[in-house]
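Sample 1 of the test manifest.
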Amino acid sequence: MPFSILSYAGDSQTPFIIKIGTFLYDHLSNSRQKFKNFKKHKWYKGPEPWNELEPEVLKEGLRGGAIYYDNNIDDARLTLEIIKEAVARGAVALNYIKVLDYVRDQAGKLTAAKVEDVITGDDFEIRAKVIVNATGIWTDELLRNFPRKVIRPTKGVHIAFHQKDIGNKAALALNHTRDHRFYFVIPRGKFTIVGTTDTDYEGSLDEVYCTKEDVDYLLESTRHYLPNAKLDYDHILGTYAGIRPLVMEEGKAESKVSRNHSIFEAPDGLVSVCGGKLSIWRKMAEDTLRFIQIHKPNVFSKLKVKRNHSKQPIWIGLEHGAWDIGIRGKKIPPDIAEHLYEQYGKGGIEIVKSLEQEPSLGERIFPDLPWIPAEFQYIIEHEMVPHLIDLLARRMEIVWLVHPRDQAKVAELAAKIMLQHYRWDNTRMQKEIVEYLEYVQRNSVFLKFEKR
Ligand SMILES: Cc1cc2nc3c(=O)[nH]c(=O)nc-3n(C[C@H](O)[C@H](O)[C@H](O)COP(=O)(O)OP(=O)(O)OC[C@H]3O[C@@H](n4cnc5c(N)ncnc54)[C@H](O)[C@@H]3O)c2cc1C
């Protein structure tokens, strides 16, 4: 995706700095890698070229800007694809299984995890030669008797709008007008996402929401750069808040804390991998395997982690050409086909096949958006979703890309398909809908703001 990074009169981010930065960005990534360096950056001098490139962006004081290229991804879908790939290679994946404690041998070393099936309440043990703690912001909770805190949680929010209300053409990398923090205005299909923030977080790790302060902070600066955009509470569709699992570094501002990852072994043998970023998931996994190979050589004697081990092709991946062949002759609107490919890859072929049996599942949920009920069916059958909230908030982005006023409609539609699949009774279905809508409400703090 193209990203525009702009320089205005008086900015510390001068044209020279942007040119050097985008040059290095292009050259530090390995240009021989497929998908990297899709195109090289280009500098556009003065405001004139931007009249066409980004008509809605503030032109006053604009000294120029560069367009560079980066990725944009639905993080939940990437994570699911990684889990599916692991399962295809022999892993067993479980959902709603919570580690409560550990079993130890006489020397105090871990031999098993004591877990609870959160749905049924059953307890059981999972024996293992090595237990890896990869629980992100919950890393400290899983460590026992560890002398120091490992994670510094920082909160980040995004807010979603219709793209037509904002008017950006590509992604914008902006300097916040108040504190010069970098943030983005990113197109996502027919939506535009504004974010993120980066603030130290001390609340519950399980309940994090976007506040009025978070929204105002992002709107304040974005209104400056996009003066004609409808950047007000009435046009917000939804918000998303998350917590970054940064590795603890005392005395540094939130946005200056390193995004590097850390791998270490506790005295009881628990290996933890934490920090890092989603975009380096392969490296984090490879480094963890190498750590185990070095520090526990007798455990997996056959494990040989060669350099670039994690750069193997993804088995379950599907190239666009193969997708085009797979859906050839099927009567699917192009935007729906592209959406299914982007979100589900190979799984999209299953969704398309399901439409042959039940064409009604291919009818759009909202007239001008590509979501179709067949996606619900596919997710229910393939992606372990015991609750409605799992489906709409943790497998899809409906929870925050659809305005709260339209959420009941989509929740009822999805819940009816779940009722049939799981043989729920009506009471259970209604309970699921209520719980989901309450969650939407908690994420919709912008609805309670007084109108200006
Ligand atoms: C606002 C925001 C913006 C971000 N932007 C980017 C970006 O642009 N690029 C990028 O690369 N990264 C970005 N990140 C960072 C990225 O999202 C995280 O680094 C990544 O999601 C962390 O993944 P993880 O697997 O370590 O943790 P998680 O994804 O949180 O996974 C931890 C898992 O452990 C499970 N768990 C917890 N406790 C237990 C237990 N007791 N028993 C069993 N399971 C347990 C949880 O249920 C969860 O599934 C962003 C983060 C935020 C919040």
